[in-house]
Specification:
about 375 residues, mainly alpha, about 5% strand, globular
Length: about 375
């Protein structure tokens, strides 16, 4: 693994640019590179792909700053009252994001632009070549790792999590799925993400520049860990939070981490992945409880995973009634079509919890503070 300053030079050479903007990104980059170098056991593919991923993020950051330097009016764009999807991983938040993406009067972060926000979509004439690139990448993913593709359903033009935008500041949860990087994971848990969310806001302005202004629909389970920092950058954000038995979630997300990691690492420590996810997500739920106790529940709409599975369109209708926004005919038609297609998906089968060193009753006990509340939260959302 090369040194972080070598990655910086490579990005500068490729783009012909030098300005990365605020230097806050360097702390996360240095820690991530050090952890990859000293702790990860990468396979030959990982030795190539992961440094290239970091160079790509650095290159995109350089291009973001270049666009702002040439078009300072981008800063005048407003991001008003985004709806942010929250919830533990594997709680139906992905399905919900696809349903919400069918609203023609709202704006989702699309997969093809998430990893490559530059150039701004409004500046591209004709079909955007990034869509074809995303289609090719998905076809390759389907061929090389079909189970991973099934675990994380996505489409090139469909909605994507905020992970790639957070990675531009090198404080993103998804890095720890790629490789064994415990020191980075431990540091990230208590890192200050002020700069991360301010930079995400900066990129969202760039993405909507030159397009009709529509309310954003964003989504990322990791936001639960850093809600106070997200709230500083998006003080008028509203939240839709999905809920499910945490014991079921931990097995599923640890399985996902293992499937991702096998692509890039020589050896996967399944027990470590179980412990890592329990530690991070119990911390996340403790923090969201404190956030809601401090700020109240008025900005939250809560959904039970079982209700979302049983009646997804009904749940979205309830959400939109809470938002005070209409469900248009075209929105309804899009949701019906997506739901029909989703019914054909095969359910995933996960390993036994013991493979990850997990005992389900013990896991449920660790999340007891959260599970005692989420039934109250979902009931309250139907009475407000």
């Amino acid at each position: 693994m090369v040194q972080y300053d070598g990655l910086i030079r490579t990005a500068q050479q490729r783009t012909g640019l030098s300005d990365f903007g605020d230097d806050a990104y360097r702390d996360g980059l240095e820690r991530l590179v050090r952890s990859l170098r000293d702790e990860a056991v990468l396979n030959p593919l990982g030795e190539v792909v992961l440094p290239e991923l970091l160079v790509t993020h650095l290159s995109q950051r350089l291009q973001v700053e270049s666009w702002y330097a040439r078009h300072p009016e981008i800063e005048d764009e407003t991001i008003e009252a985004p709806l942010v999807g929250l919830g533990l991983p594997r709680t139906g938040s992905t399905a919900l994001s696809f349903l919400l993406a069918e609203d023609p009067n709202a704006r989702s972060l699309r997969r093809w632009e998430a990893a490559a926000p530059c150039p701004p979509p409004s500046t591209v004439e004709g079909p955007d070549p990034r869509i074809a690139q995303a289609e090719a990448q998905q076809a390759m993913q389907q061929e090389l790792a079909p189970r991973l593709a099934a675990l994380v359903p996505s489409t090139p033009t469909g909605p994507e999590e905020c992970q790639d935008l957070m990675a531009l500041d090198f404080k993103s949860h998804y890095f720890q799925a790629f490789a064994h990087i415990p020191s980075y994971s431990e540091w990230l848990l208590d890192a200050d993400l002020t700069s991360t969310y301010l930079y995400e806001r900066r990129v969202l302005k760039l993405l909507q520049w030159g397009e009709p202004t529509r309310p954003w629909r964003l989504k990322c389970p990791s936001h639960l860990l850093w809600l106070e920092y997200l709230d500083e950058a998006f003080p008028d954000a509203r939240f839709v939070m999905t809920h499910r038995d945490p014991a079921e979630v931990m097995v599923s997300v640890a399985d996902l981490y293992a499937e991702v990691g096998r692509q890039f690492s020589e050896d996967i420590d399944l027990h470590y992945l179980g412990q890592l996810n329990v530690r991070h997500w119990t911390t996340a739920m403790e923090r969201v409880i404190r956030f809601r106790e401090k700020h109240g529940d008025a900005r939250f709409f809560d959904m039970d995973f079982r209700d979302l599975q049983r009646d997804p369109i009904g749940e979205v209708r309830a959400l939109y009634a809470w938002l005070g926004e209409p469900v248009s005919d075209s929105f309804l038609e899009g949701m019906c079509a997506w739901s029909h297609n989703a019914e054909s998906r095969q359910p995933n089968v996960h390993p036994d919890p013991s493979a990850f060193g997990l005992e389900l009753d013990e896991v449920r006990g660790l999340f007891a503070g959260y599970t005692s509340r989420f039934a109250e939260w979902t009931a309250a959302s139907r009475t407000t």
